[in-house]
Amino acid sequence: EAQVTQNPRYLITVTGKKLTVTCSQNMNHEYMSWYRQDPGLGLRQIYYSMNVEVTDKGDVPEGYKVSRKEKRNFPLILESPSPNQTSLYFCASSYGTDYEQYFGPGTRLTVT
Amino acid sequence: SQQGEEDPQALSIQEGENATMNCSYKTSINNLQWYRQNSGRGLVHLILIRSNEREKHSGRLRVTLDTSKKSSSLLITASRAADTASYFCAPRGNTPLVFGKGTRLSVIA
Predict the structure, then answer these.
(1) Residue of A nearest to B51 (CA)
(2) Mean pLDDT, residues B30-54 taken together
(3) Do B42 and A88 count as a contact with CB atoms less than 8 A apart?
(4) I want to staple B99 with a disulfide (CB 3.0 to 4.6 A). Which of A43, A95, B17, B22 is the partner?
């Protein structure tokens, strides 16, 4: 089954404790992206990747890192999480930016 | 990056009625995509309309695009309670796809 998976689905952590949210797709998509969704602010793009080893900042990249060492994986790294990064995070992938995006189920992160 | 703006922010209708939501954007586009999101879940792609197309249908969905007015509309005909969701447009220009705040549709049975 074609899908985008994210782990963990729910995470509660404390300020400053490094964490990684994994994202994996099985559709051989070149384009992958991370979004955060907050009430009243809609979806905002954090980082995106056009292909392996090619990443670029979205609209809200501060406090986040990404890597794209393999085509299927695009982890999101929070090296020192803060409470303002409490949010619902989505990973998405597609063949390219002119194609439909497939979204993961979301990761609800709470930073205390 | 370019963001679409959906209007209205919220819409409440009776089951069986049609629902229309609009999207405006600012610069030229290659295509415009519409997505649906059920509460707290990932977005699901509904329809993509290219800049040289004016109208597109998919089941009960009809999307129009007016590039001269930089606007698009999504019409859902004969709505059902299961259509209750948030709907987002995403205009695709020379920058990666970004999403607006969406229209929250409530269909009352």
Answers:
(1) A98
(2) 94
(3) no
(4) A43
d(CA A91, CA A46): 10
Distance CA B79, CA B17 (A): 6
Residue B2: per-residue pLDDT = 67
3-state secondary structure of B5: strand
- Tell me the C-alpha distance between B100 and A22, whole Å: 25
The three-point CA angle B80-B51-B5 to 5° equals 55
Residues within 8 A of B (CB atoms), A 28-87 only: 33, 35, 40-45, 48, 56, 58-59
The whole-angstrom separation of Cα A52 and Cα A20 is: 19
**Shortest Cα–Cα distance, A49 to chain B (Å):** 10
